[in-house]
Known about the structure:
The protein has 495 residues and is α/β, with parallel strands linked by helices. Helices cover 48% and strands 12% of the residues.
Amino acid sequence: MNDVPHIGHTYTTVAADVLARYKRLRGYEVFFLTGTDEHGDKILEVARKKETTPIELANQVVSRFQTLWKTLHISNDDFLRTTQERHIKVVKEIFLKLYEQDDIYKGTYEGWYCTPCETFWLESQLEGKRVCPECRQVVKKVKEEAYLFRLSRYQERLLQHLEKNPEFVLPPTRKNEVVEFIRGGLRDLSVTRLRLPWGIRCPVDEKHTIYVWVDALLNYISALGYPSDSRFLSFWPANVQLVGKDILKFHAIIWPALLMALGVEPPRLVFAHGWWKMREEKMSKSKGNVVDPAPLIKDYGADALRYFLLREVPFGEDGSFSSSLFVKRVNSDLANDLGNLLNRTVPLVIRFCGGRVPHPQDGNSAGFEDLTKNTLGRLDQLMDRLSFSEVLSGVWQMVKAANLYIDRSAPWRLAKEKEKQKELHTVLYNLLEVLRILALILFPFIPSSAQKIWEEIGMEGNLDSQILESEDIWGGLAPGREVKKGPPLFPRIED
């Protein structure tokens, strides 16, 4: 992390936030960690170019990230910086432990190093004229004294773990890549750099600095207070770790191998999502094609961006960002469908029911009770697979069905006939109850807007204190509550 956060950073963190919020909504105790890795060559080089110190640069960037997460309603329980003493202490203790048990040894490393990716490559892995296969930048030859981790020692254990735990790495295509890489043979990993001034000092040799990727990976357990803090004992192994596909090798090979050496269970799932591209190219500052989320949030709201990112592309695949796609999705789904449903229903209740939730006829849910049960019945499975776009697609069947129900039942016509007042009240109740359930389901995705729906239909309290039950959820809206008309939930964007 050495610059302004962009859509790629946003994507991972929003996805993690949606999953964390959903699990809390289902009654689970959740620990959601995010943070910044702040050491290494890359930070040092950028700081020198900007004529500042690495820690001053890190402080500036961290401030930008924390501001963005707040604006995006990210509900993380902790934010760990790898420059914090609580992290540095754990990293040094782990390094010393691995050294003393001969999982780390002193030797010489020779290979090709990419500074932007902070990655070592073999000659056979390079493309063209010694270009990094990830970022396409020129790599440099490195030969120096180093401390190495016996990664080769864990090759078979890693393969066995992947075989016994077929969902350890997802999507399946990424797992296949990991297996193929391991079968190609693992070399021992250089875990220190010589005379690098910006990083955690090696506890067994002050001339060396701990390799940034070993330092960074250990944040997942240092934040929990490894090895004995109650948080570590309660929340590890992590149920899910979300990463971009470009850093999967570190998280699905090096990370579990380090944990195996420590006698610690690996995370249960490492999910590698795809990239957001511009004009079919991966976003990067050097290409000038990054998308800054801040203006989008300022103009259209955090929820519009959160929804677009997780609805537009199946999580795990690459997606192409364009303003026209963003506008089309927000207008179609959020303004025309969801916003319109709320903006039609509440005024009808105010007009025909004195602004209060009416009493429905018993047993006449117009099929919405079954539709709700079917939707909720698939939620856990889809969310555990991180199939966010599929979840939203299913939820939108409820939204579209409710809008069609308004058109077909025509409550404004029912209101003109005295003998159809019960039918009118039932129609309006059903619509309000659909909105209540939609607010609950959509809260993890669009928390601010879901809260507005919740309050406009007369519900009290905050959605983050609610529990989403699958059984007997229909009918939870009590008649007599006062509805409140608000401004348009998602104003239509004029392209």
